[in-house]
Design goal:
With 327 residues, this protein is α+β, with helices and mostly antiparallel strands. The protein is built from 10 helices and 13 strands. It has a single domain, classed as B-lactam Antibiotic, Isopenicillin N Synthase, Chain (Jelly Rolls, Sandwich), CATH 2.60.120. A 7-stranded mixed sheet has the order 1-2-9-6-11-4-3. Helix 3 packs across helix 7 and helix 4 crosses helix 7. The longest helix has 25 residues. This is Fe2OG dioxygenase domain-containing protein.
Length: 327
């Protein structure tokens, strides 16, 4: 049996919709409907990039993986020089893990969009040969996010300042960032961490590339793995755009779990997290009104709480796995 056949037998795959980026650029009506349905019904979909002209995503992926492999091989004390709080970057074990009583098992280097746009050197990238690759990749991801937002605004019949793009102006501060995530192989973990606990994402859209299984989404049939696909990004809807759409758009609960591969191999994920402007007000899943920044900060604190404390509220999963949601 081939390696591909063994992988097919190992995983129960999620059947996610596929949306074509080029057709979105052309404002193809059927493709806009497909995008809207995917965001309303699933909250997760594949974005097919194969027909795009001049996309920097696939071109930069290999270089960024090289960067990640070198960066995360460094001693912990070296990486901790870049740590400036859990909201930006840090080592594994700062949040709860998948298993009750466990901590998480991933470390992150997070590069703020504002730093990329201003061409400031992020501490973790200073004096490396990869700065331009990161800038081009982040810019390409940002363009894809705004393309998706524009087509969703069209589908929602939004105009002028009501359009979703209007809450994401580049000239206004946001916590948008490029996240480089490393899940060390189980046999090298320094703590008893397990994966990344279930959650919904904080912001608007998350764009993800990973060549290794491990990401799971919550479906009506239980947890299902998301299959890595060449020339495709995995896109998921976040909390705040669901709030901005009066819950028409669905954020999906997901997590990262260990697999047979990650027992002996590292797993790398390249993620672009688009967030609205920090001062935008939203009515959140518990019926309260907060700014986007307040929701961001509160959710990061909830990530660090015990599993029992997390279950008592609606923040970690944005109310998506609870009938108590107030939206």
């Amino acid at each position: 049996m081939s390696e591909d056949e063994q992988q097919e037998n190992q995983y129960a795959w999620a059947e996610l919709p596929v949306v074509d980026a080029r057709r979105l650029e052309l404002q193809d009506v059927d493709e806009v409907v497909r995008l809207f349905q995917a965001c309303c019904e699933y909250g997760f979909f594949y974005l097919n990039l194969s027909s795009l002209d001049g996309s920097k995503v696939d071109e930069s992926e290999g270089r960024i993986l090289e960067l990640m492999e070198g960066y995360f091989r460094q001693p912990l004390q070296t990486k901790l020089r870049d740590a400036v709080g859990s909201h930006t970057r840090g080592p594994a074990g700062t949040s709860t893990g998948v298993v009750e009583g466990s901590r998480d098992a991933y470390e992150a280097l997070k590069v703020a969009r504002d730093a990329v746009a201003s061409q400031a050197h992020d501490p973790g990238l200073a004096d490396t040969a990869y700065v331009q690759d990161v800038r081009e990749f982040a810019s390409a991801c940002d363009s894809l996010c705004y393309l998706i937002l524009a087509r969703l605004s069209d589908a929602l019949n939004l105009e002028a300042t009501e359009r979703l793009e209007s809450f994401h102006r580049h000239t206004v501060e946001s916590t948008t960032f490029l996240g480089l995530l490393h899940y060390p192989s189980s046999d090298t973990l320094l703590n008893s961490g397990v994966g990344h606990n279930k959650h919904t994402d904080i912001g608007t859209l998350t764009l993800l590339l990973s060549r290794t299984p491990g990401l799971q989404v919550s479906t009506s049939d239980g947890w299902r793995f998301v299959r890595p696909r060449q020339n495709h990004m995995v896109i998921n809807v976040g909390d705040t755009v669901r709030f901005l759409s009066n819950a028409l758009l669905k954020s999906c609960v997901h997590r990262v779990v260990p697999t047979k591969q990650t027992a002996t191999q590292s797993r790398y994920s390249i993620c672009y997290f688009l967030r609205p402007e920090s001062g935008v007000s939203v009515r959140t899943s518990d019926g309260r009104t907060r700014t986007v920044r307040q929701w961001h900060d509160e959710k990061y604190e909830v990530f660090k709480l015990s599993h029992d404390e997390q279950k008592a509220g609606l923040v970690l999963t944005g109310g998506m796995d609870s009938k108590r949601e107030h939206l």
